[in-house]
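Attaching the record inline, Q. Sequence:
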Amino acid sequence: MSVVRWIAAAVIFIALLFISLQNADPVTLRFFTLYTWQAPLVFVVLIAFASGVALGLLASAIKVVRLKRQVHRLRREQRARAPSPPTRLPPPGNAPASGPGFEPPTTLG
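Structure, as predicted:
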């Protein structure tokens, strides 16, 4: 399975490389009428993709931190509410047997 994954990654990489080489034309970005910027199309697409990934990771990191805090708080509350275990249990085997098959003997008479 690992070999198939590497082959698929190589095919995707080569396809993206050829697409990027064919789209190296310069594009002009205009930020309202205040600023214009020229860069290759591939670079602009790469910047947009990287920005999206960074924002997604930031959003998920914030969510993970919130969930970890909530789990920590719930565990602390659960420990505070849990009854303390008995300090000493009776030793096993001292109680009379009970249940099916342990009925007291009956006398006929």
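The CA atoms of residues 10 and 16 lie 10 Å apart. The helical segments are 2-22, 41-81.

More tomorrow.
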